[in-house]
Amino acid sequence: MAEVTELLGRVATATLSAQLHRRGYRDTSIEGVTTNVPGARLVGVARTLRLVPYRPDLFERHGGGYNAQKRAFDSLRPGDVLVIDARGERRAGTLGDVLAARAAYLGAAGIVTDGCVRDATAVAAVGIPTFSAAPHPALIGRRHVPWAVDETIACGGAAVQPGDLIVGDDDGVLVIPPHLAEEVARAALAQELEERFISEMVTRGEQIDGLYPMNPAWRERYDAWRRELSDLEEL
Amino acid sequence: MAEVTELLGRVATATLSAQLHRRGYRDTSIEGVTTNVPGARLVGVARTLRLVPYRPDLFERHGGGYNAQKRAFDSLRPGDVLVIDARGERRAGTLGDVLAARAAYLGAAGIVTDGCVRDATAVAAVGIPTFSAAPHPALIGRRHVPWAVDETIACGGAAVQPGDLIVGDDDGVLVIPPHLAEEVARAALAQELEERFISEMVTRGEQIDGLYPMNPAWRERYDAWRRELSDLEEL
Amino acid sequence: MAEVTELLGRVATATLSAQLHRRGYRDTSIEGVTTNVPGARLVGVARTLRLVPYRPDLFERHGGGYNAQKRAFDSLRPGDVLVIDARGERRAGTLGDVLAARAAYLGAAGIVTDGCVRDATAVAAVGIPTFSAAPHPALIGRRHVPWAVDETIACGGAAVQPGDLIVGDDDGVLVIPPHLAEEVARAALAQELEERFISEMVTRGEQIDGLYPMNPAWRERYDAWRRELSDLEEL
Amino acid sequence: MAEVTELLGRVATATLSAQLHRRGYRDTSIEGVTTNVPGARLVGVARTLRLVPYRPDLFERHGGGYNAQKRAFDSLRPGDVLVIDARGERRAGTLGDVLAARAAYLGAAGIVTDGCVRDATAVAAVGIPTFSAAPHPALIGRRHVPWAVDETIACGGAAVQPGDLIVGDDDGVLVIPPHLAEEVARAALAQELEERFISEMVTRGEQIDGLYPMNPAWRERYDAWRRELSDLEEL
Amino acid sequence: MAEVTELLGRVATATLSAQLHRRGYRDTSIEGVTTNVPGARLVGVARTLRLVPYRPDLFERHGGGYNAQKRAFDSLRPGDVLVIDARGERRAGTLGDVLAARAAYLGAAGIVTDGCVRDATAVAAVGIPTFSAAPHPALIGRRHVPWAVDETIACGGAAVQPGDLIVGDDDGVLVIPPHLAEEVARAALAQELEERFISEMVTRGEQIDGLYPMNPAWRERYDAWRRELSDLEEL
Amino acid sequence: MAEVTELLGRVATATLSAQLHRRGYRDTSIEGVTTNVPGARLVGVARTLRLVPYRPDLFERHGGGYNAQKRAFDSLRPGDVLVIDARGERRAGTLGDVLAARAAYLGAAGIVTDGCVRDATAVAAVGIPTFSAAPHPALIGRRHVPWAVDETIACGGAAVQPGDLIVGDDDGVLVIPPHLAEEVARAALAQELEERFISEMVTRGEQIDGLYPMNPAWRERYDAWRRELSDLEEL
């Protein structure tokens, strides 16, 4: 797993999304979440927390004390990404700086919520990559009852299971089923090398026609360029 | 339970909502669903089905054959209301006429989904009260994977547990925790009697001031009216 | 005023909207409201009620007893249309059958709210034309505090002042400033006569080109048709 | 084509949607439009009209007189369905009763717009099946400039080309590419026969498990039932 | 008042929101507004401006010259926060740099609008904290008529009265009724001290269970830590 | 044209929007797009690309290889701004860094899309001003088929024609018809000079009343100030 996450960490979500798309995975992006730290990169293994809508009786029994939200954070392991199903609710927080600090201490790789983050400035200061719908000052109890840990959930319109690979950058966040992760990562690396070549050609003034996608002639030049490159670099 | 549902069946959701509100239950309406048969009344005991977003690998393993959706319908008992968590998704159906017919055969009291209904005309013909976000021709597999039966779910912004009381009419659908159901039903019946009196007074031309809510003078007249009435009617 | 409302009652909102548009009034429709009784026609003089968002201290002082909402209904006069500014809030009612019955008793011409109606079936039974965003079972206090009567308000994206003319049908609801009402009504009647002629021609198979809008040749035929008609009918 | 439309007219959009889905056509429903006459069935061949946002200079040159909207209606042929790209704009009409009457006179099969209909009551009286986002009194010029006829357009999130088959019922509206139409129609007829059998079994009390979808045992019983049926009926 | 605003200025909106929530104030956040200067802190006393939708006759009489918007800005006093009710309209500005400069000159503490800001870059340069829905180049007259000063208004879903305390940071903006301000501020300071302790423990590796919220054992350690701290610091 | 773009480049969109508004152009802003580089200024001449919704058959014929999207980018000339009609779709990219680099190489002035940008970080690094609805990792093919170059399109609710002037800054993006461009630019420069004077007066403590808008007395002082200024500066 460590090697796969290392590979995934070297490619953009845009490239991974293209590779998933080719394999029929068209709806594996978590929509509508943004990072609290521009330029942040997120890679890790999904853990999940499911919230349900606020209701007095359920909150009384499940909302306070050592609830599912707090159990989820205490249970994080190095490399985990906690993904929170908040039904896209933009009128309440789902975590704050204390829990973010706990996740960071435990070596978690990041946090993704389709709800909001409280005390967003303090959470950003903790330094753990956190993707959310927006900041919001309200307690989780304004709209939610923390419910279940490590179920299959919905987050930002994507299904997420514990064990899925989660990758995020400024473009957004992707969910990658584990059985596809390595294949997709390697294919993405190859694609990025091609795009690096194409970008170089474009900046030299080559036109898109024939180059992007590459026709046989360009493909040949690319192969030569690639051989050259591999003499110079580790690929 | 039978007695409670009988009581609940005699009051409007507007009145029940007021009684729940007084007890701190402000967010127990399932938002954005409407009945397929104007005038329909729905009363029963919640059973639940949770859907998660479509994903090829999950759908392959859980979407086809005798999936959670079909198991849920086969498991319905007389008086049950199947409540489906479809994340408010308006671009796919969550049931069609075959499953509605199965629910009707088993004596279920109704169906509520915050997603859509396929073959809405045929479903209406089945005659079981069905509340949904809209009709839509697409298969459940366009956006969903049927996932779990009888979990606590979110539907239309409300938390729903198996065993909750579900009541619906043209105003919408309410979720009533079982421990409150009888108390709320009886209080609602009393409130409706008051409102029946107030309506009679209003149609006679009495002004709202002092009457609605009732001041002591009106309260006295109400008590007299009520005693009279109880001689004439069963209450 | 009575004559103006009588004139307005004889034309469709679609025609009135066209006449208002020509006079630079492009945003005088109350968006997103529908009638509770298909085919209902609404014509009357605006009275207004402004609600503000729920807050415990404000509700305690202004929400209960003989509040602004109830004072507004008690103050209605024959021909009034009560227009309610509910900020388009779809998660709470703004009136129920008791207040609708009071409005009907006082001879009000109708009710328009960009919020919801409680006990929609009972309100429809009262028979007073009521346009709203949707039905909803919740009390006004779930989201609102009744605030002020007869201020200039916003309703469904339109500004409304007491004294404006309100006209509604299945297409929606329009707000007509009083100084334009008669002029717009008469121009709309003339336009409808033209469109009646055009429709007759179209149903006889005439093509749109030249007819709609009318070129001089058609205009001549129209004038003849109109003269004929005026011998037969009262215009 | 006549035969294909006849076949398509015998199946529900829900069934056609399923057949399109199996062939990889997951996004060919026109979202968010409803019929003005419950129970209406729409089948025909697409013609298109594209509107662009209102702008004074463009409207002056292209909005008045015999504009693209009117040319489109005059050009309709028997069996055509005019599909209007109004960008889902809900604050202006895109046609009224005069143009609907013209379409009806010319034998058009129906009208679909992701914008609104003016004078909705009069349009319904014309009797031509019309699917729209909502009724609205405003002129097309409030938000639109009629632009182009018979281009490939977007309507309710689906791409539509002249010549596509358009099918609509209470579930919504589908766009079917011509090369798939007959295959999809025949497969849908076969599917509906199966579902008719399954429904009969369900109403007799058979459980879903094994029946829907059919296992080999049920498949055998189905084939027998079908043979019987074909002796009795024309299929 | 000065002391209260000083206290409020020392706590995060997340903490204040929690204290308001405990006192039954769950809906006092102004939703959907963000600061034009990340990290900005806003604290002051509410003044209000209510806008109504654009209409030619109303704009002619109330939109130009020394209108309500300009009177509101000229009337600001040191420490005031001008809160503008723009109905969440995202297609027009509600103020620009000239008025922002006037507010700054008069010593106002900030501006909050649920509409947009024109010339956002210039407004940010003025340096007065400004929270809005978004920047937008259009004049207020595109959608609004400036209407009334210092009424009770709705802003971002919250009710706001002149005299309320307004506090904002990166999490959003809160409205605090004056009678609660000091109590809530002091309770928030106490809560933040606890959370400072809890955060220190978490960064040392303590688990959430038992610590957050604190059990008696932790509470004891906290009291000791606090006594120590008070010897070192001013609290 | 070069001179006009130079003039437009010296004024804020807020000022240009005001001048367009006075001339009846109230809906020429491209709504809901933001720049990827705060502070970026965009000025150029519109070229257009229209996308239609994804459909397998259309994508197979028009989506791959040297499609309309790529032809559009290859055809850009110095000073062009490519405006993309993506129907406001937020779930797919419409361009990435390779095409942005091509546009930059060809001297294009910028890119505007009401859809999303892939690889937003790399696109920002290219340095060409790009305004979009949001970043998104998905390929254009998730939701679109590249369709047509240099048609009249809709973008963010505005009509755009090749040859229109496009101006953008932090407030948003405006579309200016060519016949109005110079007149609007010069009027905007004059307005900005007035506002510069007004701002100076405001920062000196002058009140808004009488100054903004200027009464005759202030107008006189302004003329004097302006004469002075013109001795010092080039205007």
TrEMBL record, chains A, B, C, D, E, F:
Its EC number is 4.1.1.112, 4.1.3.17. CDD domains: RraA_family (cd16841). It catalyses: 4-hydroxy-4-methyl-2-oxoglutarate = 2 pyruvate; oxaloacetate + H(+) = pyruvate + CO2. Its cofactor is a divalent metal cation. InterPro entries: RraA/RraA-like, RraA/RraA-like_sf. PANTHER family: 4-HYDROXY-4-METHYL-2-OXOGLUTARATE ALDOLASE 3-RELATED. Belongs to the class II aldolase/RraA-like family. Homotrimer. Catalyzes the aldol cleavage of 4-hydroxy-4-methyl-2-oxoglutarate (HMG) into 2 molecules of pyruvate. Also contains a secondary oxaloacetate (OAA) decarboxylase activity due to the common pyruvate enolate transition state formed following C-C bond cleavage in the retro-aldol and decarboxylation reactions. This is Putative 4-hydroxy-4-methyl-2-oxoglutarate aldolase. It comes from Phytohabitans kaempferiae. The lineage of its organism: Bacteria, Bacillati, Actinomycetota, Actinomycetes, Micromonosporales.
